[in-house]
DNA sequence: CATGCGATGTTCT
DNA sequence: GAACATCGCATGG
């Protein structure tokens, strides 16, 4: 991984609201085993003003309990009957907030990520982790990773990537993808012009037959 | 590029 | 029973 620092981000990094942590996470690296992804798109959920889009909005349940735990841990949830998505938990124990890891560039273990992502059709390199469910697959995240600590020398680490200063001017903010409530809040952050950022999709309500 | 729809199962009401 | 922090494929401009 070149001259990138391998030091995990300190837990204090996550001891802030997700809306502050999310843009600060852009350009940084999350690594799990052989695969590492440089984050290019994130979304914040929870706290400040109580966020109706957050899984934690209606209080603690079995599914969202990790969100109420200590900062710096992984919150993995299952959705749409087939996808896992990963968040990094923010704010101290008892207060729920998290950053959804929406997209990134695979900077290590491209071969492993490709093997996990490809079924029958080939996947363009920039699409390997372009979208939250795709990113989770590329990094090998599933149910069993829920609650894992990402600070320290565990199997999942969030590393310092390129200095946030270097991309500061390129960070954009806008409405969150696919959320029904609280879509106006501009808590989606991305690196402008980066090809690994996922396409924006508004929320669509649907009824099943 | 934008919009639309089906797939699939878990969680919470 | 409804809703869902998505994705892949299809169609239309």
From TrEMBL:
Keywords: DNA damage, DNA repair, Hydrolase. CDD domains: AAG. Coiled coil: none annotated. GO terms for molecular function: alkylbase DNA N-glycosylase activity; DNA binding. One of its GO terms (biological process) is base-excision repair. Its EC number is 3.2.2.-. The keyword DNA repair applies. InterPro entries: Formyl_transferase-like_C_sf, MPG, MPG_sf. The keyword DNA damage applies. Belongs to the DNA glycosylase MPG family. NCBIfam families: 3mg, PRK00802.1-3. This is Putative 3-methyladenine DNA glycosylase. It comes from Acrocarpospora macrocephala. The lineage of its organism: Bacteria, Bacillati, Actinomycetota, Actinomycetes, Streptosporangiales.
